[in-house]
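To whoever is on call:

I kicked off a structure prediction for a single chain this morning and the downstream step that reads the tokens threw a length-mismatch warning. I double-checked the sequence; it's 182 residues and nothing unusual in it as far as I can see. Pasting both halves so you can look.
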Amino acid sequence: MKHLTGLFFLFFGAILLCGSCTSQPTTSSGVEIIYFDLDTFFLQEMERLKELQIKISKTVKIGDHSEEKVQDSLVNLEQEFKLFTVHNINKSSMIGKYQVDTIQNDQATLDTIRYVTMDKKMLTKMLLVLFDTTKQIQQIEVESASSSLLMNTQSRAFYNANSGYEIKSYQHLLLWGNKCLK
């Protein structure tokens, strides 16, 4: 009887051990997905936009001066999206540094995911992902801030999957005062 009891616990333990071996989703680089992965999202967006062969209109505004330029589909989207992917928080060094809030809509489907840093030293202060009614990503918003002896910078980046992106940056330079870049 002792032999059967021992085999039962060995068998039951093996089942529990195997059942806990489920793997987490990973990115293309093999990193486990803990937080929303900006790199993967923007790689998919690059492919989608390349297929659409879009033209891009860029407007840069510094203070009261603005300049507009229209570019064809040969735009380096990887370079354009780097403004967002530099804020990818889905890295092993970031685990536990962000508080995650999720909001569901009336139909109990995911509406918003919001990540807010709990570590004031982090460059990315907030990442917000908004979904539409079809569960597709509608908008991404990133807030960041950094400071040095000579300058403090705060920026907000907005990406709308249907209309483009906007970056607002505010700099306070020790010797020159405030500047607003859009």
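Update from on-call: the warning came from a stale cache, not from the record. Cleared it. Sanity check on the structure: Residues 1-29 have pLDDT under 50 and may be disordered.
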